[in-house]
Design a protein that fits this description.
The structure holds two protein chains of two kinds. Chain A has four helices and 29 strands. By secondary structure, chain A is mainly beta. Chain A has a single domain, classed as Neuraminidase (6 Propeller). Chain B is built from six helices and two strands; from the N terminus they run ααααββαα. In chain B, helix 5 crosses helix 6. The longest helix of chain B has about 30 residues. About 10% of the residues of chain B have low confidence. Classes of the chains: A mainly beta, B mainly alpha. Chains A and B meet through loops of A and helix 2 of B.
Chain lengths: ~425, ~150
């Protein structure tokens, strides 16, 4: 018996070693993950979670004094805007207000602007960028269409006293409203960006301008200070294969159409629902609902994107980086928060990352790159779409740090760079 | 030599016999499966081609967008109302198991009565659901009501 045991000793040792290593490995990856709040980043960058479990944290802004205003999609106990104060890598809840859930939030010329899914409000700020009267906002815009689908009213402001509001299409591709293909009737009051005055109370549709149309849904948008121009990220259409299996394979339907970045001018028409952009062919295509077949090009009168990204990634945040903390190549380039896909099934889901798009002289220049990844969790959680965290809003801090919200678990990440 | 072959042969016959028994039991089990296996198989094909894109392979749906088809009052409840959701589509502002969903479900009235019956039978008996089957006749009745 003893002899047998001695003989088997090396075998036991081997088994022990294997088991030990197997247990050790995941541990090790966990610690590196925890070091960057679970994110993978380019060399020199690091991330921390400065807040957690906030709820559906959508867009955010950070003041020079280190206050974070974050808008929740659904108000919690009648409060949807949280004010967190930053102290290094930690935050404390300072106050909360606003009884309407929503996405949009921005600061401009001494006011905090915030949107519900139908209205836009503003609050006067004191010299420390604190809201003076949280209970009495001034309603700037009211009565915008809110029909469940693509309901968030994302906002951006220019330097001439205007506010730009997204009004998303309450339809995938308008086929439910345009069965005879005579022209999509909902474009007059949705599927575009509307311009209103930033200081005039109670504006309705008739007081605003349909600034640009044919945009299915925009959540990420930002004013580019170099170009003095509005840039928007469109969520492209769904279901090419489901609706037109003879023209599109399951794989094509997962990759197409592109999620597009547009540089807008007044009067532009990006073509929804008549066209979509194919990022593999680099071409605006005629939509299959209106005579397209996956090969026919679109009428050139429709606006082309300035950059394009893989299908269904769902861009929910856009930010032009103007800070000095990050290396030179990031200056005036664009960060895009991709919320992640659902309409790639049965192909694996994808997205759930923050992308960097290099810019030169105010135009996209070169290939986009994944900047922050790992929000979804494990490979399985990502592929199945059961992502743990989903990037949504982006903001730049006073020291040039980048802030990213997650509207699933309610985490706020702070990303910094040091040489 | 002969003595040794005996038990081996016995073992072999026992092995084969139990194998066949297990097979028979398996067949019996499939017959016993709730609802007709053929309807389930056909329903799965319809589900995969049409519903999976939004409700996902596991019926779990997509957060905030498309609701799950697991233990909802719609799936397991009143059959005419459920049939109507497939034929007419669904975009009501309702909470489904305490959550709201923002996507729109379009009508699937181009499916045949049998296809609607099969896919709903499949949904009502998959993803942990244990409700009764839906027949083509039941779908036909609802379709006639909607048309009128």
């Amino acid at each position: 018996m003893k002899k047998l045991f001695i003989l088997l000793l090396p075998v036991f040792a081997l088994i022990g070693l294997i088991v030990f290593n197997a247990c050790k490995n995941p541990d090790r990856t966990n610690t590196t993950d925890a070091a960057n709040a679970g994110l993978t980043l380019p060399a020199g960058f690091s991330a921390v979670a400065v807040a957690d479990n906030l709820g559906q944290a959508r867009h955010l802004v950070v003041t020079p004094q280190g206050d974070i205003y974050v808008h929740l999609a659904n108000s919690k106990k009648g409060r949807s805007i949280l004010v967190l104060h930053l102290d290094g890598d930690k935050t404390t809840l300072k106050t909360s207000f606003a009884d309407y859930g929503g996405t949009g939030i921005a600061i401009k010329n001494g006011y905090l602007y915030a949107s519900s899914n139908s209205d836009v409000y503003r609050y006067k700020l004191n010299d420390k960028n604190e809201v003076i009267n949280p209970g009495q906002p001034e309603r700037i815009v009211t009565g915008l269409i809110n029909r469940r689908m693509h309901e968030p009213k994302a906002i951006a402001l220019d330097n001439d006293g205007n506010i730009y509001v997204n009004i998303g299409a309450y339809s995938n591709i308008c086929s439910d409203f345009d069965p005879n293909k005579t022209g999509c009737p909902i474009l007059d009051s949705a599927a575009g960006i509307w311009q209103f005055r930033a200081d005039k109370p109670n504006q309705h549709y008739s007081d605003g301008i349909r600034y640009a149309g044919g945009l299915r849904n925009v959540v990420g948008l930002d004013w580019n200070q170099q170009d003095n121009q509005l840039f928007v990220m469109q969520h492209g259409r769904d279901m090419l294969h489901d609706l037109f299996p003879k023209y599109y394979t399951i794989k094509q339907s997962a990759d197409l159409p592109a999620e597009c970045m547009f540089a807008l001018k007044k009067g532009d028409n990006a073509g929804w629902p008549y066209v979509y952009y194919d990022w593999i062919k680099h071409k605006n295509m005629l939509g299959p609902e209106y005579g397209g077949d996956g090969v026919k090009a679109a009428d050139p009168k429709f606006l082309n994107p300035v950059a394009a990204y893989p299908g269904h990634f769902a861009p929910d945040g856009l930010l032009f980086y103007t800070g000095n903390q990050f290396p030179e190549k990031y200056k005036n380039g664009a960060f895009i928060a991709f919320h992640g896909s659902w309409n790639r099934a049965p192909e694996p889901q994808d997205g759930y990352c923050v992308v960097f798009q290099p810019f030169k002289n105010g135009k996209p220049d070169g290939q986009w790159e994944k900047f922050a990844d790992g929000f979804a969790g494990t490979a399985e959680q990502k592929a199945s779409g059961r992502a743990v965290h989903r990037p949504c809003g982006l903001a730049q801090g006073p020291d040039g740090s980048l802030y990213v919200t997650d509207d699933n678990k309610g985490t706020i990440y702070k990303i910094t760079y040091s040489k | 030599m002969k003595l040794r072959k005996g038990p081996l042969l016995l073992l072999l016959t026992l092995f084969i016999a139990t194998g066949i028994y297990a097979q028979v039991k398996q067949v019996k089990k499939t017959v016993h499966y709730p609802g007709s296996a053929a309807a389930m198989a056909r329903g799965k094909i319809v589900y995969t081609n049409i519903c999976l894109a939004c409700h996902m392979a596991d019926g779990g749906g997509v957060q905030n967008m498309n609701p799950p088809l697991i233990s909802t009052s719609y799936v397991s409840g009143n059959k005419p109302a459920l049939i109507k959701i497939v034929l007419n589509g669904f975009k009501d502002d309702v909470e489904i198991n305490g959550q709201k969903y923002s996507n729109n479900m379009l009508p699937h009235s181009d499916l045949s009565d049998q296809q609607v019956a099969d896919v709903l039978t499949y949904v009502r008996k998959s993803f942990g659901n244990k409700a009764s089957a839906v027949t083509a006749f039941e779908v036909k009745k609802v379709r006639a009501l909607i048309k009128n």
